[in-house]
Amino acid sequence: MPKGGARARSGPPPDPNALRRARDKGDWVLLPAAGRDGAPPEWPLLKPSRRESELWSALWAKPQALMWERHGQEIEVALYVRNLAVAERSGATVAQGTLVRQMADSLGLTTPGLRANRWRIEAAAPVAEESAPSAPQRPSSRSRLKVVRDDSPAG
């Protein structure tokens, strides 16, 4: 095996907040936090199991689904779903779990996968909290100290 040279995903991942570096320049896609609207596409493989149907519907509601749809990745997502359903079963091999993680990265379902695809999910709208009455301010320890004057003769 040759030494050195570039390898897949070697080096630091792209950082959208450090766009001064040449390797980080490029188009980042901002995906809506609300995800994809509408029904999932038709299942492209042979008959899905009940679990595969559940996963398929849940995944196609995610923000990343907008990009899968744009790039026609229905088969890739279905293969991920099928392998995830197998990996969830008791007795699944470590290799099966590794494959699922790699596929999740490729589909942008993990944080490293989002970075590698140059996708960002917009921040969700902050939830307005009811303001609770604030606790009364306690005096600081310094303000509680008293200066005591010593009128006794020095001696």
From TrEMBL:
Region (Disordered): 1-24, 126-155
Superkingdom of the source species: Bacteria
Biased composition (Low complexity): 126-140
Protein name: Terminase small subunit
Organism, as annotated: Actinomadura gamaensis
